[in-house]
Amino acid sequence: MSKKxxxxxxxxxxxxxxxxxxxxxxxxxxxxxxxxxYFMSVDLHAITLKQDPKELxxxxxxxIATYLAAGIHPKTCNMFVxxxxxxxxxxxxxxxxxxxxxxxxxxxxxxxxxxKQGDHIPTxxxxxxxxxxxxxxxxxxxxxxxxxxxxxxxxxTRDIAIRMNNLYGKDTFVxxxxxxxxxxxxxxxxxxxxxKMSKSDVNANASVFLTDSEDTIRKKIKRAVTDSGSxxxxxxxxxxxxxxxxxxxxxxxxxxQELADSYAGKQYGHLKVETGDIxxxxxxxxxxxxxxxxxxxxxxxxxxxxxxxxxxxxASKTLxxxxxxxxxxxx
Length: 331
Ligand code: TYM
Hints:
Layout: E1 4-10, H1 18-31, E2 35-41, H2 43-46, H3 53-70, E3 77-81, H4 87-97, H5 101-105, H6 108-115, H7 123-137, E4 143-145, H8 151-168, E5 177-179, H9 214-222, H10 239-252, H11 256-262, H12 268-294, H13 297-326
Parallel strand pairs: 1-2, 2-3, 4-5
Ligand 1 binds at residues 7-11, 19-20, 23-24, 42, 45, 132, 135-136, 144, 146-147, 149-150, 185-187, 196-197.
């Protein structure tokens, strides 16, 4: 029996955060054996906001190097760049026509991101969830492992797919399921544990980046905002402490309660220092491996070429099926 399909992606950036790693990439690594996998660096998405071309090219390679360094197997998983498979843009257009302004207007990510753009909101920022739906539906994806902030986009993907299946036949699209891990789906800012850790945070001390040195990681976590109390418990109301325990839990595979119990009678400082050590130990080998891979773009280009070929094979079949159902004359 053929394996079920898993697909996901991260926007190309050198500022991949601990949140991206623990909320998404680490779960891909864990689940990769159970599925046939497609992992993208989503450059078409990146241009919904202004990009420097040189930096974008570098960040696109950096994304793929990160997947590899985190432990994604190049022999069994397909890794590719979104723009290398033109079916994404084509199906994206179709799905733009089958989504509504009302639906797209409800997307909280659009509200957040457009709010920072003043009067000049790129149209692509608004229609982006239809492109993300195309990313997912093109591969007949069953599972989409993401952090909590992407759940709404996957629900929209399902709504569009169900709508089109009702119009054009039940087997037009496979209805995907989000995979959101019970722990780590929303890693919080180190400086404001009520908000999500985000690459776009203006204060670099709010996030740990995979590019950060061991020393920087330790310093950032040492300065993490904790609560006014002094006891370390698993109570979610202690949001700063809870965030550090969550980070440890994702890395060590221990429950939050178990970790909280191990800190009974200890100080916040203790928790911070140990969390810093644990995060530094987890990130160090990944950072080193990314640097090594970034020194061999020839290898990455080969891998991307093969990845895009495999992706195209599947994506072109889905697109042909959809075009046929819509009534387009075959090419
Ligand atoms: P992006 O690049 O914003 O984020 C990449 C992944 O990281 C997760 N994430 C987090 N998880 C836990 N805690 C956090 N603080 C945190 N911040 C980010 C995100 O949920 C995501 O899983 N639109 C997507 C990229 C995309 C995609 C797709 C994903 C494009 N097409 C198809 C899945 C399937 C995005 O902008 O993710």
